[in-house]
Specification:
The complex is a heterodimer of chains A (about 350) and B (about 120). Chain A has about 350 residues and is α/β, with parallel strands linked by helices. Chain A has helices spanning about 20-30, 45-60, 65-70, 75-85, 100-110, 115-120, 125-130, 135-155, 175-185, 210-220, 240-255; strands at about 5-10, 35-40, 95-100, 160-165, 195-200, 230, 265, 275-280, 285-290, 295-300, 305-310, 315-325, 325-335. In chain A, about 40% of the residues lie in helices and about 25% in strands. In chain A, the strands form 3 sheets. Chain A has a 6-stranded parallel beta sheet, with helices on both faces. The chains are: A alpha/beta (about 350), B mainly alpha (about 120).
Chain lengths: ~350, ~120
């Protein structure tokens, strides 16, 4: 039996109407008898930034604070993830308006970092924290924040979460098909459905072949095995309640797309290793890989994921790599100076 | 949004049942008041948010505007002073600095084509 989605994460390209789609979907779900609510923290951004400003001032960070504010672009995303994790008590289905897809992907990168990475990977900040000698209440608060982030991570990774991309047929379809799905795979996620907003109907007087090209976008996306919820193009350029009710039905009936497989390590008789990183949807010419210290860096379309190497691989050297089918295979050989037992 | 709605709420409140939303928003959760009380933690989160843009910076010396790059350079300087002439047996592997990119193999003939025509979704 299909499990009803409890968290719908809605994102899209700039101007693709993700917020409007979120509200329309909420109404559509309610029309289907599913109580739903929207998580949208963008209106709180000013409040949150003001809090941070005050904290920066009280911390006596000086010019440092100005730079911190520039880094706040992820705060609303992080707050949204946390809000989503605690909003499930409010409705059967939570719609999280995660906004623009680049920000959402970067948020996934932040959430994908391990707790150890989050707390310990920045020596200057670790030093700063130590200097400030956080009071016990703040330590507890910090712990709870990390717990909340872990809960959010769990919800996003859970079976009842769906990632929906809002796209307009005029622009963004190619980007979604050639790059965004691959970037989601890089973050170990997948697109569960596309909401295509503004598809002109056949025989409704729209000029052809302009209208046909827009309609063809539906088939191109479906050819990738991705469900498409179509919002028709109306004369007033605004999809109506019936369209969103239909789209909500599509979302409710679609399943969760499989996520990329976990990394696999093959050992060879000669002592070498092949690390298989599953990257479905990633174009072979759009990926690059590298190493920084004991981490493997993979980049797809400018988006990077940095993951710590398995311990055995930290004693190896990378001999090469390449895409085969939908996997990036990184070849390692033993660094003899780090394998004294082999000499 | 009414005064009783949680801090993250936007839009019209759905039909709620018996519970008081303000109680729910604070029940083991992360309310706005909690954010205020943990302001220092938000500062930390802001710092961490800097990590993501920093991930695109291969060479710290080229990104003077990035606080992480500046921190890395400062740290390298400190390490350089404290570890001068003290090799640790890890060969030439740098602990910090830029990514060492790998030259990927040329495309395989059995690989699917890149771009939108390739269907790379997984089988259920």
């Amino acid at each position: 039996m299909l499990k009803r989605p409890r968290l719908l994460i809605l994102s899209g390209l700039v101007g693709a109407g993700a917020t409007r789609a979120a509200h329309g979907l909420r109404d559509g779900l309610i029309a289907h008898g599913v109580t739903s609510t929207i998580v949208d923290v963008t209106e709180k951004r000013a409040q949150i930034e003001a809090l941070v400003d005050r904290a920066s001032e009280s911390a006596g960070l000086g010019p440092f604070a100005m730079e911190l504010v520039r880094g706040l672009v992820q705060i609303d995303g992080i707050a949204g993830a946390i809000a989503s994790s605690e909003s499930s008590a409010f409705a059967e289905t939570v719609i999280w308006d995660a906004g623009e897809i680049d920000s959402f992907l970067r948020l996934l990168a932040v959430l994908g970092a391990s707790r150890a990475d989050l707390t310990g990977m920045i020596p200057p900040i670790a030093g700063l924290r130590a200097l400030q000698a956080l009071p016990p209440d703040d330590v507890i608060a910090w712990q709870r924040l990390l717990d909340s982030l872990e809960t959010a991570q769990g919800m996003i990774a859970g079976d009842s979460a769906r990632i929906l991309l809002s796209v307009e047929p005029d622009e963004g379809v190619d980007d979604v098909l050639t790059m965004r799905m691959g970037q989601l795979a890089l973050m170990r996620q997948a697109c569960d459905a596309v909401i295509l907003d503004g598809v002109p109907g056949k025989g409704e007087g729209w000029p052809e072949p302009w209208a046909e090209a827009r309609r063809n976008c539906v088939d191109r996306i479906r050819a990738r095995g991705v469900p498409v919820a179509v919002l028709p193009l109306l004369a007033d350029e605004s999809a109506d309640a019936a369209a969103f009710e239909s789209a909500a039905g599509e979302v409710l009936s679609s399943g969760r797309a499989p996520r990329p497989r976990a990394d696999r390590l093959d050992e060879h008789a000669n002592g070498g290793y092949d690390l298989h990183v599953h990257l479905p949807g990633v174009p072979a010419d759009g990926v690059r890989a590298g190493r920084i210290a004991d981490s493997l860096v993979i980049e797809v379309g400018g988006l990077r994921r940095q993951a710590r190497l398995m311990p055995v691989l930290t004693r190896c050297e990378i001999k090469g790599a390449g895409m085969r089918d939908d996997c990036l295979i990184v070849r390692f050989s033993r660094n003899r100076s780090l394998w004294p037992e082999a000499s | 949004m009414s005064a009783g709605d949680p801090w993250w709420f936007s839009g019209t409140a759905p039909d709620r049942e018996s519970e008081d939303p303000s109680e729910q928003s604070t029940r083991g959760g992360f309310s706005l008041s909690f954010l205020a009380s943990g302001a220092q933690q938000l500062v930390d989160m802001a710092k961490q948010a800097i990590l993501v843009p920093h991930a695109d910076h291969d060479d710290p010396s080229e990104h003077g505007e990035c606080i992480m790059c500046r921190g890395s350079l400062a740290l390298d300087e400190v390490r350089g002073r404290s570890n001068a002439g003290n090799a640790n047996g890890r060969g030439s592997e740098p602990r910090t600095g830029g990514v060492r990119w790998i030259d990927l193999d040329p495309g395989h003939t059995d690989a699917p084509p890149s771009g939108e025509e390739a269907d790379r979704r997984l089988s259920p």
